[in-house]
Every structure is written in C-alpha cells, then in structure tokens.
C-alpha cells in the first residue's frame, strides 16, 4: 500500500532527523570536554591517558555524526521515493 509506505518513510525520516540532532549535540559536548581536558593537561592537572580518552570520545562523536547524517540521507531519499520524487545527490 502506497499510503503505508509514505507513512513509514516519513516516520523513518523523523527518527533519522532526531538521531542526527542528538549526534550533533553529543559532538558539541565531546568538543567541549576535549577542550577542557586539553586545558587541564596543559596545566599539569590531567594524565595523558585521560586526555587520550577525551580525544577518543571526540573521534567517536564525529563518527556518530557521520553515521547519523548517512542515515538521514537514506531516510530522506526513501521518503522522496515513496512520494514519487527523484532522490537527491547530497554532498557533505
């Protein structure tokens, strides 16, 4: 049923949009944490292992945004196709 396909595609799009927003928020938090930890390390109040942990968390957050963006693109194109529109060639 075309209507069910459109409804499902729209729901997937909204879920992907929410996931992308959450991933972007997590990235901002990880950036701030990494900045604070770098300052603490420079002041001699943090171990290098803890600094590396903060930088690794930042890298994971960046990867999370990339993954969420890809999922959003896929959901957006699926919604377009369900509506009978052509997919879009996104560029990041």
Layout of strands and helices, then pairs:
Blueprint: H1 2-42, H2 48-82
Helix pairs in contact: 1-2
Looking at this protein, list some descriptive labels.
mainly alpha, single chain, 83% helix, 92 residues
**Can you give the helix content as a percent range?**
over 70%
Approximate strand percentage? under 5%
Main beta sheet strand tally, sense and closure:
none
What is the average per-residue confidence, as pLDDT, rounded to a whole number?
A: 96
Class by alpha and beta content: mainly alpha
Order of helices and strands: HH
Over all CA atoms, what is the radius of gyration?
Answer: 19 Å
Count of alpha and pi helical runs:
2
Shape: rod-shaped
Count of individual beta strands? 0
Describe the protein in words.
There is one protein chain. This protein is mostly helical and 92 residues long. It has one domain (2-82). It contains two helices and no strands. The chain has helices spanning 2-42, 48-82. The protein is rod-shaped. The two termini are 33 Å apart.
Short description:
This protein has 92 residues and is mostly helical.
């Amino acid at each position: 049923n075309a209507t069910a396909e459109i409804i499902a595609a729209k729901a997937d799009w909204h879920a992907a949009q929410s996931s992308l927003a959450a991933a972007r928020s997590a990235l901002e938090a990880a950036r701030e944490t990494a900045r604070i930890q770098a300052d603490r390390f420079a002041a001699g109040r943090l171990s290098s292992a803890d600094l590396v942990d903060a930088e690794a968390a930042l890298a994971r957050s960046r990867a999370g945004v990339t993954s969420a963006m890809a999922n959003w693109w896929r959901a957006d194109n699926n919604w377009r196709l369900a509506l009978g529109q052509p997919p879009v060639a996104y560029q990041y």
